[in-house]
Design a protein that fits this description.
alpha/beta, five-stranded parallel sheet, 5 helices, 44% helix
Length: 159
């Protein structure tokens, strides 16, 4: 059984998500990179495994707009590491031409992640407790005419 804490990071294959994964690995966490971009996730995995060990990092496909994908991520993480201590809801997009997709990823995806974390990590459900971290953009606090529909979805942590 894993004694190290375990984190799932959505959108963990690149950018801020990848940086979060690396920092978690540096501090002794085992990490599951949950990302819709399978190729980038596998490339990131191959880069990081030699540094942090194959036994400490895995990847799982996750479209955050599908609750069933979150279930698969949690199931794989528990099967591999025997626990989940942290969920970082980091996946997010910016696309002024697809407002519904932005809302689905940035807001609904966060809700699905929280719901699944409470189910798997919640003490009332037999879990060990843990933490959920939801990343957001400052665009949610100050409206920007160039961002448009994204402002509302970026407000989710403040609601």
């Amino acid at each position: 059984m894993s004694e190290s804490p375990v984190a799932i990071v959505t959108g963990g294959a690149q950018g801020l998500g990848a940086a979060i994964c690396i920092e978690l690995l540096k501090t002794g966490y085992k990490v599951c990179i949950a990302d819709v971009q399978e190729v980038k996730a596998k490339e990131f995995l191959k880069e990081q495994q030699p540094v942090y060990g194959k036994e400490n990092i895995i990847t799982s496909f996750c479209d955050v707009t599908k609750e069933s994908d979150f279930k698969e991520v949690f199931d794989l993480t528990l099967k591999t590491f025997h626990r989940v201590d942290v969920l970082v809801n980091n996946a997010g997009i910016l696309n002024e031409h697809e407002p519904q997709k932005v809302t689905d990823v940035n807001l609904v995806g966060t809700i699905y992640g929280c719901r699944m974390a409470f189910k798997y990590m919640g003490r009332s459900n037999g879990g060990n407790g843990g933490f959920v971290i939801n990343t957001a953009s400052l665009a949610g606090k100050k409206l920007n005419p160039w961002v448009g529909c994204n402002d509302t979805s970026m407000l989710q942590p403040y609601l």
